[in-house]
């Protein structure tokens, strides 16, 4: 899966705690179920206990009646079947023992070989949409058993039978007992006779269920008819990690792979899609005297059997969507499916997907195993996208773009497609054995998405972007005491869902990139090992160690290299000290946020540590000798250098050491303060003496050390910002803006802050002037990254109070209000204002943040009138920047209203809570409306829980009183929200302590810089 869209990246940077992972913009796409669901589960349980016998009788009657009414074709049944009434179900509540099977995992001795799945879908509005059918599962029983276990949740299972297909003369058996384990989500069928080992059993389970608005299992999604505006519905699936069991009874565990032959029946106005190609359709409408459009078996679609695969990757969709296509070099057909009338928005994705598929086939030397690939934009979608084999589902913002879409939207589409297509090999072709290795899927897809998207968009400079968007993101999340090891033991579905986080994705991807670089710089091919691993486990399952073994060489034991990175929480910082002219001391320890207690056990990571020494002996800074690499395995390592490498030859000569060349290693570094001062001076004198990523890494790690309280004097690190006036590249500005904003966030209510703001706005002056609001004859090869830089730089400048930028934004806003119709798209606005599309957010954010009711209401009207979701999100995000209390309250109420799609509610609320003042207001609002929030999320947004909102609210609690208030309320919340509060409070408390020690130093530094400028002007 991939994470939800991050459409608010350039909003109000300084109002946020960029530090300490307090606000993780790319937050988990999955989180534990909300309280509402748990309440519902309990209710279901009570109903089961009290009414099951009655329900069974009733449901049999209802299904028989439905079958007649809906013209269900009678199933032919297995030869010899005598349908029997099953034993009355017994409900076994969570935690209880005594049932036939209550282990976390399914029994090993009953495995599925093949599923024949045949079902009909009736789409009839929000409350009457249903599905029903039957599954016949061929089983391999390897140990005598009198019971069979399958997963199923909120499905009616009736008339279950099992038969040995090799013994046609024997009648099928019906269970004598039917246990339902609500906690483990098992149905256990106990049969009157023992089943001897054989691989010829056919388990037949008729079932029926309801299409919900839960965004999981088999669910309903809604969109508006473009012509009439009426609600239209489609039925779609989201099974990862454990929700296939909500759509059909199955062995819902990643290592219980099988083949699937799927037949779907739909009403005449719909068509069906699934993982495989269609082999047969039947459009003859049986029983034409019935209500034609309500006949769920009017049309039939039979799909080719799948290869051996896991249940969580099955998908089926019933919709009226339309395709636009492309073909790969090898002839695989690629189609992007959109709402009717929007296919032109899918042409970019279709072309990109075909090119990326070609690239992966070439790189991995393994053909994409299916004959087709469908990509579909689902209007209500919890994650960013889901890699179902051959039928990938996307949030529409992650798949659809028009010719005038902003560069960041285009990049998101390319990278999300590349992420999901990487899963077709990493996850689908070879699958993790159990969820504790989820990172193997997600880390790989994250690592590969940058390579895949680069194949179709080489000017995006994605390799350089990896550092900030994944590695730094991982380092921020993993510096918390609340982090977890990548390899985590998990049991129940709620625990599994918590693993879809920055650790599995970003840390996992960063470790793979580090291993790749280490192997390749030692002359080994990383991808040869990867191909070996994929081939060895084709259509099967694997564990982390299988990959490391395949990557290892006689010289490099990759298992040992990655052990601590995978099994320990956190990551190291390497401190560089000069022992004498010829020796360096390198020591490692875990890097933690400010104020965190030192961990009890010392961990040694294996660190491929690289560095280069620079000197200014010729007058300009330049490297001295070659690059060095040493594998650190101990807590301290003394490194001997050739010659007197660290002994300056002349009086004015200085030395500087840059560790982690190219920032390939997932560690931070600390160098002696004098060297940081040297680097700050040299960068002003020769801004490009270090490569861009080395400049970015120097800023990032030096400032991280400042914020973590690892330096006594902040001035040396803050002086690194001084060269920015001359900086032109996106990776360096990206790192700098995050850190400039981070320091601002830490002291944002300090009365002396104005001096810091002045210094920062002066640093921005030259760059803002250079980049401007319009494009002028720019080189195509750098257009994209300059566009990203422009958006981020101007957005930051506006939010930190850069007057010329604010004035420009406000005047453009006035022009827009006066000359652009309220329902015009971003393309029209940009044409009228003569600016690039990505700057519209800067214009509207500035207007709302610095304005009052008029600006807010004007933007709200555009949000409500927007025709495209990307446009609507730009206006919605702007509303979250309002500062006046009554407008913040209005935004909070808007979040819970039907105007905001449930997939966007939590993110918008978190954004609205993004400042110290607004977080208090959102907090008050949520306390009053928490039940409404939970109720809505049960209906439409089960995955997007409020963890992010609580983390933001708690993270922005500036005063002790505010933190106490949040803490008190946090105690009343469910565990997953509590976790959000705990993370937020950790960073808010650390920030308060940090301020007490360091705020005066920041202010003094700012005054000193302002003094220098004043002297220079005189
Ligand atoms: Zn993924």
UniProtKB/TrEMBL annotation:
Among CDD domains, the record links this protein to:
M1_APN-Q_like (cd09601)
Q: Name one Pfam family in it.
A: ERAP1_C
Example GO molecular function:
peptide binding
Q: Which UniProt keywords apply?
A: Aminopeptidase, Hydrolase, Membrane, Metal-binding, Metalloprotease, Protease, Transmembrane, Transmembrane helix, Zinc
Q: Which residues cross the membrane?
A: 46-72
**Quick one: where's region Disordered?**
1-29
**Which biological processes are named by the entry's GO terms?**
peptide catabolic process; proteolysis
According to the entry, every stretch annotated as the Peptidase M1 membrane alanine aminopeptidase domain falls at 348-565
Cofactor(s) required, per the database record: Zn(2+)
GO cellular component annotations of the record: cytoplasm; extracellular space; membrane
Which sequence ranges form a coiled-coil region, renumbered to this chain?
A: none
Q: How is the cofactor bound?
A: Binds 1 zinc ion per subunit.
Which amino acids does the record list as binding Zn(2+)? 419, 423, 442
Site note Transition state stabilizer, residues: 505
Q: Which InterPro entries match?
A: Aminopeptidase_N-like_N (IPR045357), Aminopeptidase_N-like_N_sf (IPR042097), ERAP1-like_C_dom (IPR024571), M1_APN-typ (IPR034016), Peptidase_M1 (IPR001930), Peptidase_M1_aminopeptidases (IPR050344), Peptidase_M1_dom (IPR014782), Peptidase_M4/M1_CTD_sf (IPR027268)
The entry's family comment says: Belongs to the peptidase M1 family.
- Protein name (record): Aminopeptidase
State the organism of origin. Answer: Allomyces macrogynus (strain ATCC 38327) (Allomyces javanicus var. macrogynus)
